[in-house]
Structure formats: C-alpha cells, structure tokens
Amino acid sequence: MTDLLIVGVGNLLMGDDGAGLRVIERLRGEILPEGVRLEDAGLCGLGLLDIWRGHRKVWLIDAVNVAGGCPGEVRWLPAQAVPRVERFDAHGGLEAVLTLAAELGELPEELELLAIVPEQVAPGQRLSAACARAVEAAVGMVLERLA
Amino acid sequence: MKIAVNHLARIEGHANLVIDSARGQVRELRLEIVEAPRFFEPMLKGCHYSEVAPIAARICGICSNSHTLVSLEASERALGIEVSEQTRQLRRLLAFGEILQSHLVQLYFMALPDYYGVASILPLVHSERALVHHALELKRLANDILRVIGGRPVHPVTPVVGGFTRLPDAAELMDLRRRLVLVLPDLEATVEIFAGLDYPDFEREVTALSLLGDGDYPVFGDTLVTSGGRGAAVADFRDLVEEYQVPWSTAKFARMDGRDYMVGPLARLRNNHDRLSAMARQVAEALDVGPATANPYRILPARLVEVVHGVERSIHLIDDLLLAGLQEEELPAPDRFGAAVAVIEAPRGLLFHAYDYGDDGRIRAADCIIPTAQNLASIEADLRLRVPQVLDLGREDLTRQCEQLIRAYDPCISCSTHLLRVDFD
To answer: What is the DSSP secondary structure assignment for residue B107, as one 8-state letter?
Structure first.
C-alpha cells in the first residue's frame, strides 16, 4: 500500500480528546509500509485542507462521540458518516471542516475515520483507562489494515 | 424585549448573549461565557523548562505559535538565557505567519459573511468561488510559513528554549519569499473589498493597550503603552492590568484603572501607526483606520492592515536571514532559575505568560493572561452603548449588529476560559 496519510486530531491537554494523537505517537514506534505518512495535526481545524492536500487516501483518527458507542470503543467510519453542518462555524470542528472541504471539492478521494469513543474529555494529559486500552486497540486495527 | 442568542456563531468557542430591554432602555446585557473552565496553568506546574512550551503550544489551535513563543521567552528570561539575533528573526517570522493565518481566517471565513448578508462562508463557496479560493491560497501560504519555520502548521516543534532544533533551508525560505511577493497584487483586491464594506456607524472611546514597537511594529517587547500615552514595563504588568470575575462568565475579565480596555489589531495600530510598513500605512489610509479610530467594527480593516504589514515584513525578514546566512547554533544552557514574565502581540492582542522556576528547573507557579479575557469587558461596554442605538431595528437586525460587533473582536473563548490560576507569592 502506498501514499496513505494517517492523521491524528485532538487536544492533548483535554484527556481522551487526545486519543487520536496518542495513536499516532504509538504508530511512530512501528515499522510501517513504505508510502505511509503519519501526522499529528492537533487542533489544526481548517489546516486539515492543507495537510491532506495532494493525498488521495487519508485516515483520520479522532475521539468521536459515536451514537450508541461505549467509551473505549474503536470503530472505522466512512467520511460520509460524519454529519454535515448547515454553517461553517468556529475555527475547527471536524464536521465543519469536512463540510467546507466537501463544498470546495477538496475532500481526499478515499477518506475514512477511525473513531475512538472517549470516556472523559476534561483538562488533563492522562487518558481514561478505557481510552488507554482503546489506543492500543486502534494501533492494532491500523496495523492490521496495513498488513 | 428579551433577546438570548445561545451559542454565538462564527467565534471560537461557546458564548451566549443576553439582552433585556424595555421602553428603549437596556435593563440587562451580559456576554455569558459558558464553556467549562480549562485548567492549563496547573498543568504547567512541576514541568521541566524543556517541557513547558510544547504544553503551552497545545492550549489553542489558532494561536499555538504565539503561546509557544511567549512561553519560550518567559522561560528564557527566568533562566537568564539570551537568544541570538537569528533566533529572534526566525521567531518574528513565525509570529507573522500566525498573525497572517489567524487574521485571514477571521476576515474571510468569520467576518465577511456578515457583510455579504449570508449565514456562513458556505454559500459564498459557490457565489464567490474566486474569492474563497483566493482566501484559501493566502491561508495556505501562511500555513507554509509556520511549517517551514516551526516544523508544523500548528503546535510548532522546532522552537525550543535557547533557539531552534532545526533551521529552514535557504531554498524553502526563497520559495516563501517568492510566494509572498506574488500575493501582494491579490491583497490589493482584498483591500478593495474591505474598503467597500458598509461598517456600522458607531464609536466609543476606549483605552487601547499594546506593546510599544521598538523601531518596528510590535510583536515582542519590554514596554507596554496605552493610547493615552502611559507606559509601563512588561515586568510590571500587574500594576496595570487587573483580572476579575463576573458571575455570568467562566472566563475572567480584565480592567485597567478600574475600566475596560481594548487589545488586538486596532489597539496595536492606534498605538503604533507610525511603525507600520510603508505599504501598510497606505492601506490604513485607504481603509480609514488610524490612531484616532474609535469604531470597534473597524477592527476588521485594522486586521487587514496587519496582514499587509505582515506580508511585507516577512519578505524583509527572509531577506535579512538569507543575507546573513543561516548558522547552526548551540543552545545556551540556563545560568539561573528565577521568575519572569513575557508578552507577545498574539493575533488577538497581548498574551502574557509568567513563570516561577524552582532550583530543579521545574515550574513552581504559572499564570497566563489571554487577549480575549482582556477584551470581554470592552465588548460588553460597546454592546451597552450600541444596543439602545439600534433597539428600533427589531430583533433580527439588532441581533445581527451585536453579533457582528462581537465577531469584530474575534474572541477566542476556548482560550480565555482559564479560570484557575496558581498564584505567585
């Protein structure tokens, strides 16, 4: 597999919101196939458009409150599963960025989301126990798909 | 009439506006900051000086470079570290990159929809396609400045205590320079758009607080100045600025001499108009903003003047860096551990970081004062004066006028909700 960009987004200082970034951190220690690039995009908001520019295939990893999901659950979602918003608001919600990117025709051809259901999004750098396990599971799920 | 705007649109973070009026009088007006407070300062407590800036960089996605740069300077002052001229220039370039990026997003994506009579940028993607693409191109260039100098478009990794861990290539800098020169004609078109906007006619005298530029328009500095001409050393900022709490906000407000004051683009421009680049001064004239501007809606053109200044200064900074030739430098070690304060002109205004280090090189106490916290009282005071003037417009137009006014300040609520602070003794 070549030319895949794996992007973690979230806030490292807000507990489980940083789960996606922890997955990227962990993946840096793994041997990945050639052509796979990792990016810790943090709170980049609209900057995602620049980060994934030129990439046909992108996996986003983020803490997402999936309806009916349990804390610590990890799930692959198609980009279409992310609700579109009526307005482009604030500087950075993923829904708003994906909506604007879709309007502009700047969504990567293949975009998937690896969603980690958070338990606690609150100030602090530690993950909840459920999310710490979820990060390991997510790393495994990424490696499995890359194999 | 009671108006409650829950979740104000096109600002960073969550805030509500509540207005209660009767017979042409405003009975109550509150800008409610309802976000849960964030506890960043205590997170810095116990951190080694090498870990502080990377944590500060994660406070906010919009001004992560400003938090990093001011954090580094506060640490360096506390540790007795002098940085080189090359480091100062690279940091200045990084700061301009962030000002450009933040200002461009606010101007095009947050503010312009108000003046085109649409609810957000989304309808403009189709009706004003060229404009939106132009905005994205400009923003991409700003992002690339941040990436080339800071190693990443957000949460920079190369600036560290004492200098940089990686220097940009000369070729990368030359490419940035080429693109910066190319955007100047595009910016002229942007200036024409903003010169033609119908800014509401409203004025309120308010003290502007900013850094005083040291021969240049300010980014870093040692001296604060008010529009009344009063000066103060940055180290004495607590003699000037007092934080206080209001019951309806999880963010602190700030006052100076018991009154509200303004920070940010218009405050900087009012206090440092004569330090703008030649082109930016011309643009300021064309956009009708200057030292006496008292209309807060005109923070928008002031922001655009700073974009022009930022582009021009970035070109000159790159020239200076290339001419001198980039040199690998050793990172100096601390020669003491003490307390210090530093300030940067972040996109939204003065951003203070104050640290106290113990002998183990770890933070004992930290304090951050964010620009938006300093502007909240001014926004409320503007609204108190503005609302009675436009009460007869009816609910919808009145709400729009208020939102437009709040958005002109570009408040970053997420950043300003740092309620808890570790006090200095």
So the answer is: I
